[in-house]
Specification:
Blueprint lengths: L1 E5 L3 H14 L4 E5 L2 H10 L7 E5 L7 H12 L3 E6 L5 H6 L4 E4 L4 H9 L13 E4 L5 E4 L2 E2 L5 H12 L5 E2 H8 L7 H20 L6 E4 L2 E4 L5 E2 H6 L3 H6 L12 H12 L1
Parallel strand pairs: 1-2, 1-3, 3-4, 4-5, 6-12
Antiparallel strand pairs: 6-7, 7-8, 9-11, 10-11
Helix pairs in contact: 2-3, 6-8
Length: 268
């Protein structure tokens, strides 16, 4: 869960960051003392998403109610929880469809109660044993341990299937890509069959055979069974967008067209 906290007093801000961090597992918490800085942060990464914002109401300059309106303009369905020492703003807060209104000092129990009753429930992100890195050089990890490939072409086969993101790839298509400088022939077909067997062995050893879909004369990656920075980027995940620095599967020439597309997307 991505959580934004804004309070113009340092001690309450740090206290709430610790409190929220203590009751929300794996939360990414970003805190600001100035509403303008919070807006600059979300505006500089417009593809990012904030699931929930804890906003102090009485702040200098832009107050929490005004900030909430700006955040809703950016995100639409964002859970706003107001934090304040005053009850007089409750009507205005709920007019903005707030998910909560917490009175200071805020207890961990109050934070849990607010999260349990969010207006827009946050769906947990599925975590997979197999993580695929495509930004920079292509690498594959099982439980964060790099997979070892005896043949570089076996790794390249998996890289190409990953780039195709679940699309079925025929034998002839893959052969033409990873042996781009050689004419299609029976010898290459035999080499390709050996690569498929080798890939099967590597994945079986990692207990991950299910990430490959096999059909007659075609293969595909089971995109819903892996974690991949490319897929996260295409879903506009903020961390993935920020982690892309202009290199995609840098060791493979056939990945250049996708890299050009990613660069174009980051400029939009």
């Amino acid at each position: 869960m991505n959580i934004l906290i804004v309070d113009d007093e340092k001690n309450p801000l740090e206290y709430l960051k610790r409190t929220v961090g203590g009751v929300v597992a794996d939360a990414k918490i970003t805190g600001f003392m100035k509403p303008s800085e919070a807006l600059a942060h979300v505006s500089s990464t417009p593809k990012s998403h904030i699931d929930m914002a804890f906003l102090d109401i009485e702040m200098g300059g832009m107050n929490g109610l005004q900030l909430a309106k700006r955040l809703k303009d950016i995100y639409g369905k964002i859970n706003i929880v107001f934090t304040t020492g005053y009850s007089k703003y409750a009507v205005d807060a709920y007019a903005l469809h707030a998910s909560g209104y917490l009175m200071k000092p805020i207890s961990p129990e109050a934070v849990v109660e607010a999260i349990d009753h969010l207006r827009y429930p946050v769906k947990p992100v599925a975590k997979h044993r197999i993580r695929v890195q495509t930004f920079g050089n292509f690498e594959v990890f099982a439980d964060e341990v790099p997979l070892k490939f005896l043949r570089s072409k076996t790794k390249e086969l998996l890289a190409y299937l990953t780039m195709r993101k679940g699309a079925l790839c025929t034998n002839s298509e893959v052969i033409a890509v990873i042996w781009e400088d050689r004419p299609y022939c029976e010898a290459l077909q035999n080499q390709y069959r050996h690569l498929v067997l080798d890939l099967t062995k590597v994945l079986k050893k990692a207990n991950a055979e299910d990430i490959i879909i096999r059909q007659r004369s075609a293969l595909a990656i089971a995109a819903d069974k892996i974690t991949c920075d490319l897929y996260d980027f295409l879903e506009a995940d903020a961390d993935a967008v920020n982690n892309y620095t202009g290199e995609f599967m840098a060791q493979y020439s056939w990945a250049e067209f996708t890299n050009a597309y990613l660069e174009k997307m980051t400029r939009k």
